[in-house]
Amino acid sequence: MDEKMHDKKDDKNELLSVHEAEFAEYIIDQTTDKEIVIKVSCSVIEHPIGNVIKKICKKHLEEKIRPINFDLAPVTFCDSSGVGALLYLIQYQKKNNSKIAVSAISAELNHLFNALLLDHFIEIV
Question: How far is CA 58 from CA 26, 53, 116, in A?
Answer without folding.
Answer: 17, 8, 23
